[in-house]
Amino acid sequence: MFTTRPELLGTFGVAASTHWLATATAMAALEEGGNAFDAAVAAGFALQVVEPHLNGPGGDMPALIWSAGEERLRVVCGQGPAPAAATIDAFRTLGLDIVPGTGLLACCVPGAVDAWLSIARDYGTMDLARLLRPAIEFAAAGYPLVGHAVATIASVESLFREEWPSSAAVYLPGGRLPEAGTLFRNPALARTWTRLVAEAGGGSREDQIDAARRIFREGFIAEMIVDFAAGNEVMDSSGRRHHGLLSGEDMANWQASYEEPLTYDYGRYRVAKAGPWSQAPVFLQQLALLKGFDLEGMDPLGADFVHVVVECAKLAFADREAFYGDPAHVEVPMERLLSDDYNDARRRLVDADASRAIRPGAVEGFASTVRVGGRRGPVPGTGEPTITLSGGDTCHLDVIDRWGNMVSATPSGGWLQSSPVIPELGFCLGSRMQMFWLEEGLPGSLAPGKRPRTTLSPSFAFRDGEPWMAFGTPGGDGQDQWSLIFFLRHVHHGMNLQAAIDAPTFQSHHFPSSFYPRQADPGRLAVEERLPTETVATLSRRGHEVEVIGPWSIGRISACTREDGLLKAAANPRLMQGYAAGR
């Protein structure tokens, strides 16, 4: 079968990500003797520079990490919570009934930097200066700006010029829209990381990294973040100007944490995900529904396969809306949602025609309310960054080293279009708080110190009990659709990693979006035009609102596996920037 590039095979190390420079950065760390954790951290900081429309230091980052030495899989939670001042009453007092998708008011505590540095301290081998060196070099000397970054800047150009001058100073150099493929620099960000390394001082590797974490939380970086958020009222997607709610205490009191993964056994595979403070368990719920169908007997490009996968997604994502939230604040009935009898009953709701209803399940003792927001407004820059420009957003990277350590990470937030650049730092804050509801009593209701139910959802799988695959994708609400389709085609239909990534795919928009303004499009099914004509026609006859879009426009999967003495890697060709490498 022809693929856009080969599935890569090696024994020394492999890496795959959404940008070739991040992949090269990871491989350079491996070649210098670093392990998978060093490689992922260096690549993660590089991604913040070279994909500023998809992630940044002010954003968030969950990861799944397998330590060969500990023989243990852990979830790294780099999702910062809502500030202490972020109450429903505070937003209502401002006349808001939904959290804006941009600006300073929607900012959670930045989580990505502390999460990356926690991995580096606890599992890496390289010092802080080496880990940050590629990011500093890209920011100071320049990197080629990809076309979709330029398109994103163009979409918010007027906002930058009229309302966010600090962003215009960085992203409209010389007062002009930058050109794709030209060198782009962010000197302020380079100075920030250079100063961080200098202030972290000497001592042991671990002491340096801990010092850097404290500086980000309590030192000059935290001070500049808090001062900017409190001292500026900026235009956001509500059409009004607001300041931020972050305080010094919010910054100082939060740190990234480790958690046990949530797992589900699917034949010879055990899939691991983060908990229901993210949307990640919806992947497992779909597996629990799909295991009752003969997927291997279906054409992976045929209407039966697409229909069954989509209808099961509708059921699982309805449960996401009804039940998921930060388990430190609300009880989530995950055991029940993954149980056989629950899914046996839910599976019977899948019939020959497409459903137009949003149908969460019934769990004793739990309400099953589903909220839907309004239509997307005219203010640019809302939601995840390139959903309307392309088929993807956010970043993803996977790494496996020769010792068997494995990383799957999905950094996001702090997008250049999410809030204004903090001039002294060279980066902006995130707007993840838009995922909360301003209504009491829902699992996803806003509360101080609560994590928003993020869409970020890295994946990990065991095969026959052995650590096997690190994989994932950007894509907002599409993440646990795209990655699931890839997984099913790989394990049921014999497609290799690259073929499963390249294959024409699809995405349901049936359920409420996680992003401002939280709209739903019941029955809407986007498909790449490379799907067979008969498949598309049959889906339409079965009641799906089929929208045929560009041939290479849905999905941005990357994946790495470790099996039978070989390491394998593959990456997405869509958007023409993702790459895998290995030897």
Itemize the secondary structure elements and their pairings.
Layout: E1 8-10, E2 13-17, H1 20-31, H2 36-50, E3 63-67, E4 72-77, H3 88-93, H4 112-123, H5 128-141, E5 143-144, H6 147-155, H7 157-162, H8 165-171, E6 183-184, H9 187-200, H10 205-218, H11 220-231, E7 234-235, E8 241-242, H12 248-253, E9 257-259, E10 262-266, E11 269-273, H13 281-290, H14 303-323, H15 334-337, H16 340-347, E12 397-401, E13 406-409, E14 459-463, E15 466-472, H17 479-493, H18 497-502, E16 506-508, E17 524-528, H19 533-541, E18 545-549, E19 558-563, E20 566-571, E21 579-582
Parallel strand pairs: 17-18
Antiparallel strand pairs: 1-20, 2-12, 2-21, 3-4, 3-13, 4-9, 5-6, 7-8, 10-11, 11-14, 12-13, 14-15, 15-19, 16-17, 19-20
Helix pairs in contact: 1-2, 2-4, 2-5, 4-10, 5-9, 9-10, 10-11, 13-14, 13-16, 13-17, 14-19
> How many strand segments?
21
Fraction in helix: 25-40%
Described by strand count, sense and barrel closure, the largest sheet is: 7 strands, antiparallel
Report strand order across the widest sheet: 1-20-19-15-14-11-10
Strand content: 15-25%
Structural class: alpha+beta
Q: With helices defined by DSSP (H or I, 4 residues minimum), what is the helix count?
A: 19
| Poorly predicted runs | 375-383, 385-392
